[in-house]
Amino acid sequence: MARLIQLTILFIQFYYYYYITTTAHGVSSNGTTFLLDSSRSAMILPLFLSPPNPCTKFSSTRRLLQRSNANNALPNARMRLHDDLLINGYYTTRLWIGTPPQRFALIVDTGSSVTYVPCSSCEQCGRHQDPKFQPDLSSTYQSVKCNIDCNCDDEKQQCVYERQYAEMSTSSGVLGEDIISFGNLSALAPQRAVFGCENMETGDLYSQHADGIMGLGRGDLSIVDHLVDKGVINDSFSLCYGGMGIGGGAMVLGGISPPSNMVFSQSDPVRSPYYNIDLKEIHVAGKPLPLNPTVFDGKHGTILDSGTTYAYLPEAAFVSFKDAIMKELHSLKPIRGPDPNYNDICFSGAGSDISQLSSSFPAVEMVFGNGQKLLLSPENYLFRVSNWFF
């Protein structure tokens, strides 16, 4: 069985480290984002699930990153992706919940496992893209009653959830079960599934345009795990992003035929609840950064997180990466960045034609533990600043 993630944008998060953002005019300091133009080849990393132990709960199974032999006989849910990183900072898909269906725009997030939408009873929820979910208007809605397998409310009546994210925003509410539909592109019929009916949100979750989050990670509350456990889809899913200035994309819940040029990297499912990969080296202009491979291996290691806007590097890797990029820039002028609150590293003179960036900026390669290399064109590691006048 396999859990496959196909990404055409590289979302790699290195925990607890300094980061660098780069722009199409140059490099800026305090966050590195990797963006992909649709004219370039895609990065594809597959995630696999090893055969589960029948004596354990489904959430304790082990996903690996390795080659796929998935049987695609089961139907899959093909779904459109909307929004983009330049404007929104995330990608969303559409889910329909209830009978009759109520529509929601949800951020696709491989770094968390709970799918939730604002509930009509929520008094501490922001104004989002769609109306709040109204359980009373759904003839198929059922609350999840308190049991030994969940956290319960103070009255011991309902199961509840609570999540806190890296930027310190929070979401909490009760768990419900209802019919979830995946849109008219889906071959998968609507399915009953558990989701969060949100009663409070703070921080970025409160102010964002999207309604909620679709958690694609591992765990008892994962909608993907739930569908796999029911036997209605193969244990895989794919994400394909439009890239810089393009937006949108596609998502598939269930099996697909892996492309012939797929880059494979193994993951250690024991060390982390996240989709981690074994990054060993970064090459700039064909030369490896002078780093010990253990620099990428702290805490949870290197993980894929589709809900994170930027990629984060360990400080030592950031400094080395920045220095290596700057050594390769000979005709560009360093300038101040657009945000006075950050000491960004930016350059002018590269032009605005994405296809011509490789004439000014070097190629970068990510090297994994199995020796596989992923080539990043300049638009994969540069962040374009729109409407910036000098």
UniProtKB/TrEMBL annotation:
Where, by residue number, is the active site? 109, 305
Is Protease one of the keywords UniProt gives this record? yes
Under CDD domains, the record lists: pepsin_A_like_plant (cd05476)
Q: Which Pfam families match?
A: TAXi_C (PF14541), TAXi_N (PF14543)
One MF term from GO for this chain? aspartic-type endopeptidase activity
According to the record, the signal peptide region is none
**Gene3D superfamilies in UniProt:** Acid Proteases (2.40.70.10)
What residue stretches are annotated with the Peptidase A1 domain? 91-390
Instruction: Please list the GO biological process terms of this entry.
Output: proteolysis
For whether the record's keyword set contains Heme, the answer is no
Keywords on record = Aspartyl protease, Glycoprotein, Hydrolase, Protease
The text of the family note is: Belongs to the peptidase A1 family.
Q: What is this protein called?
A: Peptidase A1 domain-containing protein
Give the source species: Populus deltoides
Q: Please name the taxonomic classification of the source.
A: Eukaryota, Viridiplantae, Streptophyta, Embryophyta, Tracheophyta
